[in-house]
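Give me a protein, keeping tokens residue-aligned:
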Amino acid sequence: MKQALEESKKPEKQNNIPFLQVVISVIQASFGVQNASVRERDFKHGKLISFIFAAILFTTVLVLALVFVVKLVLDTA
């Protein structure tokens, strides 16, 4: 019983971070609201290529959304 309790307190060892968590982490970091523990997890267990791909994807979606909003506003003006 005591051994099971001690094992449950040990942090889980993660080798990879799921891509959805990578995307969420990139979004949080871009707005400056990322938690220090999440940032630490990303540096320890994340792959650089995943973060680069997620950042490029986020930037592309953000720019396209801004272009769409600007065109929509200009068309209605």
